[in-house]
Fold this sequence. Notes:
The complex is a heterodimer. By secondary structure, chain A is mostly beta strands. In chain A, 0% of the residues lie in helices and 53% in strands. Chain A is built from no helices and 11 strands. In chain A, a hairpin with a 7-residue loop joins β9 (85-92) and β10. The termini of chain A are far apart. By secondary structure, chain B is mainly β. In chain B, 0% of the residues lie in helices and 47% in strands. In chain B, the strands form 2 sheets. In chain B, strands 2, 4, 5, 6, 9, 10 and 11 form a 7-stranded mixed sheet that branches. A 4-stranded antiparallel sheet of chain B has the order 1-3-8-7, with no helix packed on it. The chains are: A mainly beta, B mainly beta. At the A-B interface, β5, β9 and β10 of A face β5 and β10 of B.
Amino acid sequence: QKEVEQNSGPLSVPEGAIASLNCTYSDRVSQSFFWYRQYSGKSPELIMSIYSNGDKEDGRFTAQLNKASQYVSLLIRDSQPSDSATYLCAVNSGGTASKLTFGTGTRLQVTL
Amino acid sequence: EAGVAQSPRYKIIEKRQSVAFWCNPISGHATLYWYQQILGQGPKLLIQFQNNGVVDDSQLPKDRFSAERLKGVDSTLKIQPAKLEDSAVYLCASSSSSGVSTDTQYFGPGTRLTVL
């Protein structure tokens, strides 16, 4: 069973702080990794994808990948109340084909 | 560009009844996915279509769930008969390429099913 593990939270951070969300995965051959944001009652929305070891930055978001440690993280700088949502880590477990396995998500709360 | 469309948005049925969900992917997207998301969990893939062919249905409970994608565009997911544990949000997603690992999947609004 290929697994993706996330801490369910809630992770509470004050406005303006950095939120750090973590994800580990079990399938060593996974090549593609995605972070989705899901507001309550809404569908998942892609915010970052990463395929190579290291960091990838997009605005206030930075994804970090360490394949040797089977670890993916998402940093949100200058957190805003609008960032309050559940963040789903998704790992492609289908080799070259697209087959996403999702974690259970981490609920982030940004407080005023 | 219009997003993934799903209907209905909400459905309440009693156990042992049947139900069907409809999905229209983003125009031109060849790959279509159906996911089940139980409250507090991440989405779980039920079935993946490439055009009108099934690529992966390994997690589809085939004794009660069925899906089709006629003409490689719209898709329908059916449950017959429904069980209490089928209460979940059913998400449809689509992607533009050939279902390769770097594809971005775009999700529809989902159908929230409650089985009483």
